[in-house]
Amino acid sequence: MGGATLGGVTRNRADRRNDADDRSTPRGTLAYGTTRFALFGEVLLVGVIVGVLSLPVVTMVPALTVGVRHLRRHLTGEVDSTRRLLRDLSPAVRDLWPLGLLTPVALALFGFNVWLARTGLAPGGRVVGAVSAVVGVVMVVVVLRVAGTWEPGQRWWPAVRTAGSRARRDLVGSCLLVAAVVMCVVLVWMLTPLVIVVGGLLAFAMLAVEYRLGPGPVTDRPAL
Q1: Domain map of the chain by residue range?
Q2: pLDDT at 207 over 70
Protein backbone atom coordinates (compact mmCIF):
# COMPACT_ATOMS: atom_id res chain seq x y z
CA MET A 1 0.00 0.00 0.00
CA GLY A 2 2.87 2.34 0.82
CA GLY A 3 4.32 1.76 -2.64
CA ALA A 4 0.98 2.58 -4.23
CA THR A 5 0.70 5.76 -2.17
CA LEU A 6 4.25 6.80 -3.10
CA GLY A 7 3.51 6.13 -6.75
CA GLY A 8 0.36 8.25 -6.58
CA VAL A 9 2.25 11.15 -4.99
CA THR A 10 4.94 10.92 -7.65
CA ARG A 11 2.34 11.00 -10.41
CA ASN A 12 0.60 13.99 -8.82
CA ARG A 13 3.88 15.90 -8.64
CA ALA A 14 4.62 15.06 -12.27
CA ASP A 15 1.13 16.24 -13.25
CA ARG A 16 1.66 19.51 -11.38
CA ARG A 17 5.00 20.04 -13.13
CA ASN A 18 3.36 19.39 -16.51
CA ASP A 19 0.60 21.87 -15.67
CA ALA A 20 3.21 24.45 -14.74
CA ASP A 21 5.03 23.84 -18.02
CA ASP A 22 1.74 24.25 -19.89
CA ARG A 23 1.05 27.54 -18.12
CA SER A 24 4.54 28.78 -19.00
CA THR A 25 3.88 28.21 -22.72
CA PRO A 26 2.54 31.40 -24.36
CA ARG A 27 -1.08 31.05 -25.29
CA GLY A 28 -2.22 31.93 -28.79
CA THR A 29 1.00 30.75 -30.44
CA LEU A 30 0.61 29.67 -34.07
CA ALA A 31 3.00 27.99 -36.48
CA TYR A 32 6.64 29.14 -36.61
CA GLY A 33 6.35 31.12 -33.38
CA THR A 34 3.92 33.76 -34.57
CA THR A 35 0.91 34.66 -32.43
CA ARG A 36 -2.71 35.48 -33.10
CA PHE A 37 -2.13 39.08 -32.07
CA ALA A 38 0.87 39.38 -34.42
CA LEU A 39 -1.20 37.86 -37.24
CA PHE A 40 -3.98 40.34 -36.51
CA GLY A 41 -1.47 43.18 -36.77
CA GLU A 42 -0.15 41.86 -40.08
CA VAL A 43 -3.69 41.63 -41.47
CA LEU A 44 -4.30 45.28 -40.54
CA LEU A 45 -0.95 46.31 -42.05
CA VAL A 46 -1.68 44.45 -45.27
CA GLY A 47 -5.10 46.09 -45.38
CA VAL A 48 -3.57 49.55 -45.27
CA ILE A 49 -0.87 48.75 -47.84
CA VAL A 50 -3.28 47.02 -50.23
CA GLY A 51 -5.69 49.94 -49.89
CA VAL A 52 -2.99 52.45 -50.82
CA LEU A 53 -1.62 50.33 -53.67
CA SER A 54 -5.16 49.85 -55.03
CA LEU A 55 -5.85 53.57 -55.41
CA PRO A 56 -5.10 53.51 -59.18
CA VAL A 57 -7.83 50.77 -59.37
CA VAL A 58 -6.02 48.82 -62.09
CA THR A 59 -3.45 47.73 -59.49
CA MET A 60 -6.09 46.21 -57.23
CA VAL A 61 -5.46 42.59 -58.28
CA PRO A 62 -1.64 42.80 -58.03
CA ALA A 63 -2.00 44.57 -54.67
CA LEU A 64 -4.18 41.78 -53.28
CA THR A 65 -1.70 39.25 -54.65
CA VAL A 66 1.29 40.73 -52.85
CA GLY A 67 -0.82 41.03 -49.70
CA VAL A 68 -1.56 37.30 -49.77
CA ARG A 69 2.12 36.50 -50.33
CA HIS A 70 3.11 38.70 -47.38
CA LEU A 71 0.70 36.95 -45.01
CA ARG A 72 1.87 33.57 -46.30
CA ARG A 73 5.48 34.46 -45.55
CA HIS A 74 4.48 35.64 -42.09
CA LEU A 75 2.77 32.33 -41.33
CA THR A 76 5.63 30.22 -42.67
CA GLY A 77 8.32 32.06 -40.74
CA GLU A 78 9.98 33.72 -43.74
CA VAL A 79 11.18 37.29 -43.97
CA ASP A 80 7.99 39.35 -44.16
CA SER A 81 9.26 42.91 -44.30
CA THR A 82 7.23 45.67 -45.90
CA ARG A 83 10.11 46.29 -48.29
CA ARG A 84 9.84 42.75 -49.64
CA LEU A 85 6.09 43.17 -50.01
CA LEU A 86 6.63 46.25 -52.13
CA ARG A 87 9.29 44.47 -54.21
CA ASP A 88 6.70 41.82 -55.07
CA LEU A 89 4.45 44.46 -56.61
CA SER A 90 6.54 44.99 -59.74
CA PRO A 91 6.46 41.34 -60.96
CA ALA A 92 2.80 41.08 -59.95
CA VAL A 93 1.89 44.10 -62.08
CA ARG A 94 4.01 42.80 -64.96
CA ASP A 95 2.32 39.39 -64.94
CA LEU A 96 -1.23 40.36 -64.02
CA TRP A 97 -1.76 43.78 -65.60
CA PRO A 98 -4.30 42.52 -68.21
CA LEU A 99 -6.39 41.04 -65.40
CA GLY A 100 -5.98 44.24 -63.43
CA LEU A 101 -7.41 46.21 -66.36
CA LEU A 102 -10.16 43.76 -67.21
CA THR A 103 -11.52 43.22 -63.69
CA PRO A 104 -12.73 46.75 -62.82
CA VAL A 105 -14.10 47.33 -66.33
CA ALA A 106 -16.03 44.04 -66.34
CA LEU A 107 -17.37 44.56 -62.81
CA ALA A 108 -18.49 48.08 -63.70
CA LEU A 109 -20.30 46.70 -66.77
CA PHE A 110 -21.99 43.95 -64.74
CA GLY A 111 -22.98 46.47 -62.10
CA PHE A 112 -24.49 48.74 -64.75
CA ASN A 113 -26.49 45.81 -66.15
CA VAL A 114 -27.85 44.99 -62.69
CA TRP A 115 -28.78 48.63 -62.12
CA LEU A 116 -30.46 48.82 -65.53
CA ALA A 117 -32.41 45.65 -64.77
CA ARG A 118 -33.70 47.16 -61.52
CA THR A 119 -34.95 50.27 -63.32
CA GLY A 120 -37.05 48.17 -65.71
CA LEU A 121 -36.13 50.39 -68.65
CA ALA A 122 -34.58 47.67 -70.80
CA PRO A 123 -36.59 44.77 -72.28
CA GLY A 124 -35.47 41.48 -70.79
CA GLY A 125 -33.60 43.43 -68.16
CA ARG A 126 -34.28 40.95 -65.39
CA VAL A 127 -32.64 38.11 -67.29
CA VAL A 128 -29.67 40.28 -68.25
CA GLY A 129 -29.36 41.49 -64.66
CA ALA A 130 -29.49 37.97 -63.22
CA VAL A 131 -26.91 36.67 -65.70
CA SER A 132 -24.66 39.66 -65.06
CA ALA A 133 -24.88 39.15 -61.30
CA VAL A 134 -23.97 35.46 -61.56
CA VAL A 135 -21.10 36.09 -63.99
CA GLY A 136 -19.87 38.92 -61.78
CA VAL A 137 -19.79 36.68 -58.71
CA VAL A 138 -17.94 33.96 -60.63
CA MET A 139 -15.43 36.52 -61.88
CA VAL A 140 -14.82 37.84 -58.36
CA VAL A 141 -14.18 34.31 -57.10
CA VAL A 142 -11.76 33.50 -59.92
CA VAL A 143 -9.88 36.78 -59.48
CA LEU A 144 -9.55 36.16 -55.74
CA ARG A 145 -8.31 32.65 -56.49
CA VAL A 146 -5.70 34.13 -58.82
CA ALA A 147 -4.56 36.49 -56.11
CA GLY A 148 -4.35 33.58 -53.68
CA THR A 149 -2.29 31.25 -55.89
CA TRP A 150 -0.15 33.46 -58.14
CA GLU A 151 3.61 32.92 -58.14
CA PRO A 152 6.19 35.25 -59.77
CA GLY A 153 6.62 34.44 -63.44
CA GLN A 154 3.11 33.04 -63.87
CA ARG A 155 1.28 34.94 -66.60
CA TRP A 156 -2.28 36.04 -66.15
CA TRP A 157 -4.05 33.58 -68.45
CA PRO A 158 -2.46 30.40 -67.02
CA ALA A 159 -3.14 31.87 -63.57
CA VAL A 160 -6.82 32.36 -64.47
CA ARG A 161 -7.10 28.81 -65.79
CA THR A 162 -5.53 27.40 -62.64
CA ALA A 163 -7.76 29.55 -60.44
CA GLY A 164 -10.87 28.48 -62.36
CA SER A 165 -9.95 24.85 -61.92
CA ARG A 166 -9.39 25.27 -58.18
CA ALA A 167 -12.64 27.18 -57.83
CA ARG A 168 -14.53 24.40 -59.60
CA ARG A 169 -12.90 21.66 -57.50
CA ASP A 170 -13.44 23.51 -54.22
CA LEU A 171 -16.98 24.87 -54.35
CA VAL A 172 -17.12 25.21 -50.57
CA GLY A 173 -14.02 27.40 -50.60
CA SER A 174 -15.47 29.48 -53.42
CA CYS A 175 -18.64 30.02 -51.38
CA LEU A 176 -16.47 31.03 -48.42
CA LEU A 177 -14.78 33.65 -50.60
CA VAL A 178 -18.18 35.02 -51.64
CA ALA A 179 -19.16 35.14 -47.95
CA ALA A 180 -15.92 37.00 -47.16
CA VAL A 181 -16.65 39.59 -49.84
CA VAL A 182 -20.21 40.04 -48.56
CA MET A 183 -18.96 40.47 -44.98
CA CYS A 184 -16.44 43.08 -46.12
CA VAL A 185 -19.20 44.97 -47.94
CA VAL A 186 -21.36 44.84 -44.81
CA LEU A 187 -18.48 46.09 -42.64
CA VAL A 188 -17.84 49.04 -44.95
CA TRP A 189 -21.59 49.76 -45.13
CA MET A 190 -21.78 49.82 -41.33
CA LEU A 191 -18.59 51.85 -40.82
CA THR A 192 -17.03 53.38 -43.91
CA PRO A 193 -13.49 53.91 -42.45
CA LEU A 194 -13.15 50.12 -42.23
CA VAL A 195 -12.56 50.15 -45.97
CA ILE A 196 -8.88 50.62 -45.14
CA VAL A 197 -8.64 47.07 -43.71
CA VAL A 198 -10.74 45.29 -46.33
CA GLY A 199 -7.67 44.38 -48.40
CA GLY A 200 -6.09 42.62 -45.43
CA LEU A 201 -9.28 40.75 -44.57
CA LEU A 202 -9.71 39.54 -48.15
CA ALA A 203 -6.04 38.55 -48.37
CA PHE A 204 -6.38 36.52 -45.18
CA ALA A 205 -9.59 34.91 -46.45
CA MET A 206 -7.91 33.94 -49.73
CA LEU A 207 -4.97 32.45 -47.90
CA ALA A 208 -7.22 30.48 -45.55
CA VAL A 209 -9.28 29.09 -48.43
CA GLU A 210 -6.17 27.97 -50.32
CA TYR A 211 -4.86 26.27 -47.16
CA ARG A 212 -8.14 24.36 -47.00
CA LEU A 213 -7.77 23.03 -50.51
CA GLY A 214 -4.47 21.33 -49.80
CA PRO A 215 -1.45 20.92 -52.06
CA GLY A 216 -1.04 23.61 -54.68
CA PRO A 217 1.45 26.34 -55.38
CA VAL A 218 2.26 26.55 -51.69
CA THR A 219 3.90 23.36 -50.45
CA ASP A 220 4.51 24.33 -46.86
CA ARG A 221 1.15 24.88 -45.18
CA PRO A 222 1.17 25.35 -41.41
CA ALA A 223 -2.10 24.93 -39.55
CA LEU A 224 -4.01 28.18 -39.07
Answers
A1: 32-213
A2: yes
